[in-house]
Amino acid sequence: MVSGCTSGRRPGVTRKDAILRAATELFATQGFDATATAAVAKAAGVAEGTIFHHFKTKDGLLLTIFERMMSSYLKGARMEMDQAITGLDAIERYIRFHFRFLKEYSQESLLISRDIPSHFFSPEFPHRKQVANHVSQIVGLLKDNLELGQEDGSIREVAVDKTVFILRGLLIGLTRQRLLGLLEVPDLGEEAVDFCHRSLARLF
Question: In terms of pTM, does the model score above 0.90?
Answer without folding.
Answer: no
